[in-house]
Amino acid sequence: MAFAGAPFKGAGVDFMGTGAENAGVTQRRTMSYIPFPPVTPEVFSVEVFGMTLALRWYALAYIAGLMAGWWVIRQSLRSQRLWTKPPMREDQLERLLTWVIVGVILGGRLGYVVFYQPGFYLSNPLQILRVWQGGMSFHGGFLGVAVAGLIFCRRENIPSLTTGDLFAMVAPIGLFLGRLANFINAELWGRPTDLPWGVAFPGDAAQFCPGVVGVCARHPSQIYEALLEGLVLGAILLWGAWRGGWLARPGRIMGLFIAGYGLVRFGVEFVRQPDAQFITDGNPLGLAWQVHGWGLTQGQALSLPMIVVGLWFVWKARPA
Fold this sequence. Notes:
Strand order of the largest sheet: 5-2-1-6
Mean pLDDT: 87
Shape: globular
Oligomer: single chain
């Protein structure tokens, strides 16, 4: 389904009554929405020996995020005003980047398998290898990077808390770019909304909104996350590292990142559409954990421990 037109467009949308007094009654009102921009998931593609090779925005976001993060960390290691002695050498940083890449990919994929679709992948284990078909989890990628980083720090005898601070300082760069790529891919959109900045995402899944007849606009939850966990959280952490002296308290920046991401993700989950496997007729909100209709989405359940752990690191941070 394609959408075109002015930046803001009004559409007559029919909302079917759900209460007993409104059963079968259709209410029609004008709904403003932003048409989805004319972009595709691919930056470009080429034909090579009968095969199509494409560079996708999502892959480019990973590459750009890792490279930008590496550059910022390298500059911080070179800054004499931030350290009396840098926590690692530049050659160690380059080797650590390789470990981080492996941790992101393995952790992100296995996290999605375990946290979101364990039954499907248990029955189809070979599907786990098809990373190019999508299916990555931030929480899994975070755990993968944490494990890879701890192993590397022990092998190289470098301080793990300060290393964690450095990578937490630049992680929002990758989150910002990754969420923009999610938007371009028209995936991970939010719940239906009649707010004027709702976006009419293309595709049958995005336009399937029970109770709505006509164009269905949704929260651009990817943009919310890009702004909050990317720009805002990133600006706070970079200011704290370069101007606030927070690197002098190992673990503080890492703790603020973990808790900050957890808080943002927990809040955005209220307007983010849950994964389809959690939504049923009896559970339209897609709650993964619930008691008598009250509960948490899977994203919220995974974010709560991050908030607690992050605040613990902030509390325990002491001058080096």
